Amino acid sequence: MSSSVVSSLHQELKQSFEVLRANRAVWERALADCEPLLSAIGNIAVQLQALRHVQLANTPLHSFPGLHERLHYKLSLAVDSALGKLAENMDALQRARDAIGRQVSAVFQFYERNTHTLDIAACVSRSAVCPSVSDMLEWLQDSERHYRLQLVQRRTLLQTLTPSDLVLMETAPGRWASLHTSAGEERVTDALCQVSFFMETE
Amino acid sequence: MSESTTPGKKGNLTGSARKLKDNAADWHNLILKWERLNDEGSTIATKIVNLGLNKKSNMESDVLMEGGSLAAGDHSKNLKQSNQELEEECVKLQDVVDKMANILSKMEKMVSDERGICELEAFQYGEKGRAEPLFHTWPTHQFAEVSSKLYESYKQELALKKTILQELAHTSNADLSMVYLSSWLYQPYIDDSGKLLLESLLLETGHRPL
Amino acid sequence: MTNTEGVKVLPADAADTHTQRCRMGPALMSRLGLRLGSPVLIRVLQGACVCTAWPRRDLADGFLQISTQCSTPGLDTLINPHIKPLKCPKLTSVSVKVFVRNPKHTSESVHELLEGLYVHEGHLVNLGVDTEIRFVLVETVNSGSQKAGLVTARTRVDVVAIQSVKHMERRKVSGSTLGGVEDVCASLKEMITFPLRYPAVLRTLGLSCPRGLLLIGPPGVGKTLLVRHVAQDIGAALVTVNGPDVTGSRPGESEENLRRVFDQARAEAEEGPCVLLIDEIDSLCPRRTESSGAPENRLVAQLLTLMDAIGSREGFVIIGATNQPDALDPALRRPGRFDREVIIGVPSLLQRRSILTSVCREMPLSPDVDLNAVAEMTCGFVGADLSALSREAALQAMRHAQAGASEPVSMQHFMRALRHVRPSCLRSSIGATDFKRISWEEIGGLEDVKLKLKQSIEWPMRFPEALVRMGVPRPRGVLLYGPPGCAKTSLVKAAASSSHCTFFSISAAQLFSPYVGDSEKTLAQLFAQARACAPSIVFLDEIDSMVGSRADSALSHSVQSQVLSVLLTELDGVGVRAVERRSEGGRVAQVEGGEQEDTRTRQMELQEVCNKDVLIVAATNRADVLDSALLRPGRLDQMIYVPPPDREARLAVLHVCTARVPLHPDVCLQDLADLTELFSGADLENLCKEAALLALREEGLGVSCVRHEFFMKALRILSPSLSPEQLQQNFHSCLY
Predict the structure, then answer these.
(1) For a Cys-Cys bond, which of B47, C72, C365, C585 suits C369, CB 3.0-4.6 Å?
(2) Are the CB atoms for B110 and B26 separated by under 8 Å?
């Protein structure tokens, strides 16, 4: 095996982890922006629910013409605007995921092109400062998978939200929060921690 | 008396045009102020509803704890405190509504002023009105109409808010309280056309660049 | 052959469960020529799965951890894995069937979920993430000759079908086979699947397929199991209603519950075939009574409305199961509602054998177990009893086995289990008796009587073909008469023991009750049960006290004459009640095996066809008072006189009675036989007992044998119970 292949693979890997780190920050910011929007949607759903339950004709509000329709319209409008903003954030998440995915598939392609010079023994050897190629590829694959699945799940959740199903909307913030898998996040964090020395070596 | 002016020439306006332009700016400011008051009021109203719900749940737990005199005494103290708090918040909300009423009266005044301008014009130029518009395209009576529309929606809104103010602290129905709160916050009678009217008013009078 | 000899298979790490990774040692990876993440096909005993090869974190060789994310459906145990490197091209397109939690929400994200996975035709991918789509079944992949490939961002993913996860889980369960109800099973299947398979044909014929079916049968014959099995087999959803679940205390609650169940079934029917099983429907819909306000009446009305509302919805079938069809409201049993009625009777001999084969399929049986013999012995057993029997036999085997060692279940275990498990149709029934089995040899003398009894009881049961061949009709009833104490009862017991049939015995004391009509009902019920458990023997001891004679005017309107008329009807009634009908085992069972097995089967079939009757055996010592109608041919046509023992017989009886008594050499049984003229069998038994007691009394408890003198002493104390007049009387009736 040639050491030049190993070192260029290491370069690829370093770059991949750089991309991962940068895009993780982007991802988390976008995700943080989604939180208040989701809770707003949940709140509006509660209000719509209340509106549905109350017979305005039997309340002190009976004298206000078209109040029910007007209020419903206003609330729906608010939902739409929140969903619109969420869609923007989803685009940001998508971009972060795409960047990670591109980089990871690039590094895998590089590895596959050079398998004839990289035997298994070389791929699994690790040292105190440098994790093995196998470890790092695995981490990258895991991270890519994590972000890909997270995106799908979150997007699916948003797609189910329509003003016609208030219960789904009401539970949306909770379900959104439950999608956060600490295990997946931790694996990304762990991977980034474990490569920190490797990243500093030249 | 040369009243035909071109917008943009500031300080050159006199008479009706001057008045209309000032009114447009006032509309803008008053509505902003209204929105601020609305947000403020919404916070207070939420607090009132929460206090009311707490009080209710406290009262329910009181019934449960009839036996313990000590606990009951504690509760009555709590109750007194929360009642006082509730009253304070209601006074605050009253204050907000009063301010809104004040704004509305200013709006009313503007509407009547603009009607006056229209009448004046009719007196000056006859039924057809003036040949050239005061600003860009609007005939004078359109200012009055826009103002009146805006005024009507805020007037309805204020009536709604007054009702809410009266009922808010007394309703025990959680759903109804929620409807009060969302009606306060989302102001159902101030619709998008109102915003559009205001924007075109500002455009017409040259507050917004074309 | 596997290439993983000596490698231990461990469960996959939690983190790896849904990563499609197969962890192995680096040495194995190099040996197989795998790079990091190479796709491999792992074949195991039950199926296969596609994985990517990755080294273990600790780099240890000798272990294998397999993620079964993409595997053949139903794969759970991984034995003898064989790893084969796969050449996986990137797929241009793949068509899949997706299983979602809620079919209402379909999303287009399958592609993203599958991206980066290696898939194989026919494999099920467990996505393992919390989305609507839980599983993806790969139907076809487009990659030339290869059946596997990698899904990339450029792969086109076609969703050919969307089904709910519940639907898939139903398909996964492979049903256990049912024995003996093939014909009912087939008819059920046909009913459910016809409208689904040939909707066009049915439409052109203008047929609306039957929507309801009523299963009738005694408890334990497997009605519920059958429905479950059929539903599983054809992949239909099964919604079960239990009577008690539906009924609520609030007025209207029951109807509401019923409506909810129907709604549920209807929702299921949207997706695929659906079977609504109403178990114990008789408790839900009893016969409507006069008082119109009763809650049951409303419930029946609701059920009728719901059933009528189903219309011709395809693939929706309602099955009611009951063991008391008479208690059902008649409105339910008309065409359009429950149009078909299927009766499952108590299993016949062949059916029992097939049930036994199916319940013992998983059991290690030792070669001496003859299920045919067990089937012959388990007359009257229903499916539930037979499975209890096999369970009990297995338990017996376990009890016998030394700790740790597993012993195959042998015939002896079955025999022991037979003693514990009684047929459920005999439980709580009136005449069922648990008698000690007696062999012919235990009855001394009476050889010609024994022969006659064998002819009329044992032969028809055991060698029916010979009788059929000779055109001999089997007797309907046998009357044993003769002086008391001459072993009439013992003879019947011996006959019942040797012919392996259900044995019912009833005496006058059991029959008579202070309530009007009760006795007749009891007797009719007894016969109904006997027919259900046919072939069976009904033994009426002391029949003279039960029925008397109609000629005797004193009895003309008494209970006894009523009982007599019931008995006469039961003896040669027009037919069997429809409910008690037995399924015809006419079809030749396909048996793999030699000629011997074949003949055995044929013999069993014959036996089954011939043995559907109830044999009535009556005993009396006053044949003269019996009604003549009872004694005419076709009823108790076989009359056997059980005479008081003559000298030879007495000797034989004495031999039997003293078989366990240590006799002094001076005892001469010949002499005793000479001296015991007019002694009945019972007297002789008593004599031996008395002699032994005398010996104990006079020579102390340490006595070792009975001497002749004690017999003589006992003889002096005892007097014969028979009298010459009595014998005369019996002779008279014999001639009469």
Answers:
(1) C365
(2) yes
